[in-house]
Amino acid sequence: MKKPILKLCLITAFTALLYSCSQNEMSESDSKAESQNFKVIDVTHHDGKPFSTGTSNSTSTGKYVDNPGGGVMMQAFYWDVPSGGTWWNTVSSKVTAWGNAGIGSIWLPPASKAQNGAFSMGYDPTDYFDFGDYNQNGSTETRFGSKTELVSLITAAHNENIKVYADIVINHNSGGQSEANPFTGTNTWTNFTGVASGKFPRNYNDFYKNSYGNNDEGSFGGFPDLCHAAPNVQNWLWLRADGVGKYYKNTMKFDGWRFDYVKGFGAWVVNSWNANVGGFSVGELWDSNVNVLNDWANAANSSVFDFACYYKMNDAFDGNNLALLNDDMMWKRNPYKAVTFVTNHDTDEIWSKMLAYSYILTHEGYPTIFYRDYEEWLDKNKLNNLIWIHNNKATGTTSILYSDNDEYVARRNGYNGNPGLVVYINNSDVWQERWIQTNWANTQIKDFTGNSSWYPTTQADKWVKIQCPPKGYSIWSINQ
């Protein structure tokens, strides 16, 4: 009786094996069919060139060079960095490592003397030409250091071929003296004729309300609101050869500008600055409406921070609905004028930061990394890996291949011989696998993050199955 029982067991096992194989084949077929049913979204339509930050004052002897994916910016400060005049030296000590990692530019906080002197973060400017070399507002140095230290930092960054962007606060001033103001019938703190540098003297005629009107687009915090229609203001900010813009660019050697609170004045101000001074520029227009961002960027002839992308990432990653990443964003509407970010000194809402960085560093626009994320809070090695992938693989237009609540797959379509990439983001608690269509037939690919050990080969029809770790990402390109 033993032989029939053994025979029955073998038949049962073989049947189970056939059933299992059949089920696996059906599962594979269903998985591929599900992906094939997703209508691919070709997000951008252009010639594929990377984001350009224009010409630079930087030297040509540094270690950082232009790369296929474009640049990466570092926001080189956070709110309330240590006082005591050490910050410029702190940043200076970082630029060699940042350059080696592939950082192409740094954004510095407002560099000139402000009302709170050695304790100010610079957003209440008094004297645009006091970089820490005049004794006023209670100190000689700024919170960040001396003019000599600032010049040394800019030089060190340029030696690494890193561009340096100045934070420009031209909506409002603070720290002026009280004066009788005939337009208000009261005393106002609008007398800046005694600034220690002797440059850009101004009084009530240069602030709203005045002979040019009662107000402009917006005021901030009750500070005196600069009137950009006033000839004295235009001359000293961007027209004069020794004015703020040209002095910062030609003497201090800044390469570009981050304009603070651009909702407070007309887009024509930044447009005129850029036309007369030059350099890269990006505006802080705190608005999630893509139309508002795009209209301002076009009118100002400037890049703009992609707050639409920021808020969509927050809702998608923290709200577990990655399909929201299909929605409109500035980088999709105007990829050459969108500066993307995950955190900055004003807002830090996104919890799933590494997923967000994997998104902005594989997609279009000009990605920005926040100092504390890089130096303190996140895994620097993982960020360096994403920076390398951005610079070397994130090329061409963008297509979304699949998205649902917890999966998102997108393809960069390559440019100028560079093959591009496929990024897979997984917001679930388990490993995920998905069939997707690449741009590569019969080609072995790999995950350049190292999160997956697979080395799959694409089929003749360019389809391939890839995988992604839980609460993680994988980024695939040709294995070369």
TrEMBL record:
Keywords: Calcium, Carbohydrate metabolism, Glycosidase, Hydrolase, Metal-binding, Signal. SMART domains: Aamy (SM00642). Residues 1-25 form the signal peptide. Pfam families: Alpha-amy_C_pro (PF09154), Alpha-amylase (PF00128). One of its GO terms (molecular function) is alpha-amylase activity. Ca(2+) 3 binds at D406. Residues 71-387 form the Glycosyl hydrolase family 13 catalytic domain. CDD domains: AmyAc_arch_bac_plant_AmyA. InterPro entries: A-amylase_thermo, Alpha-amylase_C_pro, Alpha_amylase, GH, GH13_cat_dom, Glyco_hydro_b. Ca(2+) 1 binds at N171. One of its GO terms (biological process) is carbohydrate metabolic process. The active site is at D260, E284. It comes from the Bacteria. Its cofactor is Ca(2+). Belongs to the glycosyl hydrolase 13 family. This is Alpha-amylase.
